[in-house]
Amino acid sequence: MTASQIETVRGAAEAWPGLPYRIESCRAAGPHAPLPERTLCEFRFGPPAADGDPRRVAVGLQILQGDAGGELWLSERPVHYGRERDFAYSENGEVLVLQLHLEETELAEMEEAVYRAYVRIAAFLDAHGYPQMWRVWHYLGDINGGEGDAERYRRFCIGRYRAVADSPDFERRLPAATAIGTRGGGLSLIVLAGRRPGLQVENPRQVSAFRYPRPYGPRSPSFSRATLLPWADGARLLVSGTASIVGHATAFAGDPAAQLRQTAANLQALLAHAAQVGLPGRDAGEFRADSYIVYLRHPEDLPRVRAGLDELFGDAPLRVVVGDVCRRELLIEVEAAYRMPLR
Ligand code: 3EB
Whose CA is nearest to atom 14 of ligand 1? Predict the structure, then answer.
């Protein structure tokens, strides 16, 4: 445990009854088929579907490998969904999925726009009774545009920090996250929220992102490494975008295959820590992957990482998409969702 890492709460994970949704990877309806009734969310990469169903998340990144059908989050209970002001949402009484898109023209004052988006999202979540943000995805056009502290990602971090750092214990409530660049402009936010706090899990090999030192930007990135949701019928571990960062330093700049191996080591360390602090008596080897998403900065690097992907992730559900990672030297990032089945 590094000095800059927040200590994850130990043994606090009392099991929650039931299981509100499960992920069916690569089983999505696709843009032309209507969604099954009990769909909480369809999460895929590609162009938006024509039917405008608010439960569809379509992220405009190019798929290099894996099923374009994406994944379907199937609810165990009836789903209520709709649109309200600029939000699309879907909920089932236990969890809520929220989407908000800001156009590029709304990002002229990046810090202010991100701050306002986060504040509006928090107000929406509170009003609907899902105050706990568990996981958030950010897809930001030209994320590495601008130099030094004027970089768009760094400005994004300033706005996000301003919105969340509103109380002394805010670090304990930070969600797991992804922040990836897109070719188009604008900012898409997708949020998974719930009624009660998940268990924050940090990574023993990495300084907590919210404690990164000044060289990485005026405000540190406000996210935690993973969120554990201890449902009795199958715990879930939602893992943030994970990259080749050890301590707070980038490892293996310029070498995507080595970055992938380092990333896999970080994921292993995170799983071990999550089992230890959140699922007493269970072993990290019992986690099963529901989904891996690999973001590759340069599509031409795919041949260099393919053997590593096969070896590290085997036949788990995996998609590789083209996306810019928010630190410039990072060439690859992996996010994941795991479940811990009942014994
Ligand atoms: C890292 O570990 C890599 O700013 O929300 C990964 C996931 C990263 C989320 C974010 C940034 C974010 O620092 C970058």
Answer: 326
- Ligand 1, atom 9: closest residue by C-alpha: 178
Q: What is the dihedral of CA 47, 50, 56, 58, to 10 degrees?
A: 10
Supply φ then ψ for residue 302, to 5 degrees.
Answer: -55, -45
pLDDT attached to residue 25:
78
Report the alpha-carbon distance of residue 79 to residue 38 in Å, rounded. 6
Q: Which residues line ligand 1 (CB under 6 A)?
A: 138, 177-179, 209, 221, 223, 240-241, 243, 245, 326-327
- Mean pLDDT, each 10-residue run in order, the chain (343 residues): 54 77 81 90 93 95 91 95 97 97 98 98 98 98 97 98 93 96 96 96 97 97 97 95 98 98 98 94 95 98 98 94 97 97 84
Give 116: exposed, middle or buried? Use CB within 10 Å, 0-12, 13-18, 19+. middle
Q: Which domain holds residue 76?
A: 3-341
The residue whose CB lies within 8 Å of the most ligand 1 atoms, and thus the one to mutate among 206, 223, 294, is: 223
Return the best residue to mutate from 161, 242, 333 for the ligand 1 pocket (most ligand atoms within 8 A of CB).
333
The number of domains in the chain is 1
Catalytic residue positions, numbered? 333
CA 98–ligand 1 middle distance (angstroms):
20
Question: Which CATH number goes with the domain that contains 227?
Answer: 3.30.1330.40
Q: Is 150 exposed, middle or buried (0-12, 13-18, 19+ CB in 10 A)?
A: exposed
